[in-house]
User: Fold these one by one.
Assistant:
Number 1:
Amino acid sequence: MSLTKDQQLEYISHLVGECKKCDLYKTATNSVPGHGNSNAKIVFIGEAPGAQEDQQGLPFVGNSGKLLDKLLSTISVPRTDVFICNILKHRPPENRDPLPNEIKVCTPYLKAQLKIIKPKIIITLGKFAMNYFFPGESISKIRGQVRKIIWQELPLTIIPVYHPSAGLRNGAMLKSLQEDFLSIGKFIKDN
Ligand code: SF4
């Protein structure tokens, strides 16, 4: 008997919960594998869990998550329709940037999640998620662009935007995020 998509995602979450492939599990309270609809057409990928996420074991539940919820509401996409996760599944101490080796050893979980969900559209939040698909590119140059790629044999549309935490810190970046979400909303309607 084959496993349902929810069961497959639960299995990945279990593996993440047991993972010791880098040191981040040592300082984290909970793993944050990702959460949402296993049949999502749209997946959002951020950088790493923050303090609230680490406490609750859920992605984007702090202030960045509140802003993400607001942005989703502007395009009438309910959070229950999407899947949300991060490049790293445990919180880096003091929210420092992910290290190259942490990204290398952790992203097989993300890859497995995407292969199970098979989304049509991926919205990368911030530079680390953008660089996973487009190494060496700059988020300020390609934010808001609609890029169609074949990734791991999956046809994907990727739209990189700033991380919501950047929007909380900087008014110009918030404006860019709002503009980019309007473009995302239009793209979803037309496709
Ligand atoms: S951050 Fe990723 S690689 Fe590191 S321990 Fe957690 S799940 Fe494993």
Number 2:
Amino acid sequence: MSLILTIYFFILGLCFGSFALATAWRIKKHKDFVRDTSECEHCKHKLAAKDLIPLFSWLSLGGKCRYCHKKLSRLMPLAELLGGVALAASFVWWPYEFNSALLVARFALWCVALILLLILFLYDLQWYILPNKVIYPLWGVSAAYFVTFFISKPTPYTLALLAGAIFIASGLFYAIYELSRGAWIGFGDVRLGFAIALLVMQPIQAGLVLFIASFVGMVVTIPLLVTGNKKLSSKIPFGPLLILATFITVLFGQAIASWYSTQILML
Ligand SMILES: [Zn+2]
């Protein structure tokens, strides 16, 4: 049963990825969200339903446009795979139960947040900006996600932890933004930080997001620096790293924190 559900979420995630990439492109081109149909980036041929089956269309056509036979962006199958893996992994390693309406709503809200995070990931990767058109809806969804926790534990302590998370994920970014005059991180990262705080809800977890993002950033940047490809390394956007780190922290943050306190601090 859970294997079938995992496959189901993987396929649904492929569609999420496809939708996220198309939405990123549409926001970039200021196109109408709903009415506009997809087209080939080369010949502008309108794409039919059979061209838009995630992964399958790209594979069966060998990565080329059906109409003009020019190569299609590799980002397409990559975005779809990313969505599929992200959603399937969310289902498999979801740290909470599914046994009440509130808990199912919590997972559903996470899925919606995941779509918005995917759009931001793909947008920032290509154009080095986190568009507000996506950030503000993400604030709303993340706030609703936080509310599902607050309902089950409506104490001042829950709010205090959130305040700490906001201070770290958004306040610290704002300080870095001000100090570096926008050179190290953009104001979009500060806005994204607020949504991240609502999703991870605790200062330790917010710190973990920063740590993972910086660590992965370092791992990605060092080979570029060594090979002398500095142009590339100086243009790695921080947004996708933060989003990846948030994803890891939401799924594994509690496990990492308790592993750390028992194995490292011997508590
Ligand atoms: Zn074409």
